[in-house]
Write a structure and sequence with these properties.
With about 160 residues, the chain is mainly beta. The chain contains two helices and nine strands, in the order H-E-E-E-E-E-E-E-H-E-E. Strands 1, 2, 3, 4, 5, 6, 7, 8 and 9 form a nine-stranded antiparallel beta sheet that branches. Strand 4 and strand 5 form a beta hairpin. It is elongated and about 45 Å long. The termini are far apart.
């Protein structure tokens, strides 16, 4: 009985421990392939490290994009990504962004600001072994729109 109690307490305390993120983006490069008033297509070349002992599958998902609390549009991942376990994975994928109405005025307004708050919200569909998992994403970062090279003058 003491052993069972000890194992239960060990399990209880170990489940409360904080773990590192299972996946880390080591480096990335983004290239805009297409842009118009309704949508944009972005190509990401990334190196992603999977720290887990099992492969992770990232399935087609949708995230909402907000800039300074205002919805800019939706980002779609259309293809599956498979990350092998315990190694760096080279990922080359397309992300489609569908803009909300009035995007031109928003982009012009944001282009001349010093900093903006970029937020991604939604759920990413993943698979770990045979278990499907939806991971909530609430990512926020302050960026400078002046440093972004979107090649809007050449489109």
């Amino acid at each position: 009985m003491k052993t069972l109690s000890f194992l239960f307490l060990l399990f209880l305390f170990s489940s409360c421990a904080s773990f590192e993120d299972p996946v880390e983006v080591v480096s990335y490069d983004m290239k805009m392939e297409n842009i118009n008033l309704d949508e944009a297509t972005l190509r990401f070349n990334m190196t992603v490290h999977n720290y887990t002992w099992t492969p992770i599958k990232i399935k087609p998902s949708t995230l909402e994009i907000f800039v300074d609390g205002e919805k800019l549009g939706d980002a779609y991942l259309d293809e599956k990504i498979r990350l092998q376990s315990k190694k760096d994975n080279e990922v080359n994928t397309l992300v489609h962004v569908n803009f909300s109405d009035g995007i031109l005025g928003k982009l012009i307004r944001y282009r001349f600001k010093e900093t903006v708050q970029l937020e991604l919200r939604g759920k990413v569909k993943t698979g770990l072994l045979f278990v499907p998992v939806k991971i909530p994403v609430n990512y926020s970062k302050v960026i400078s729109p002046k440093t972004l090279n979107l090649n809007l003058d050449n489109q």
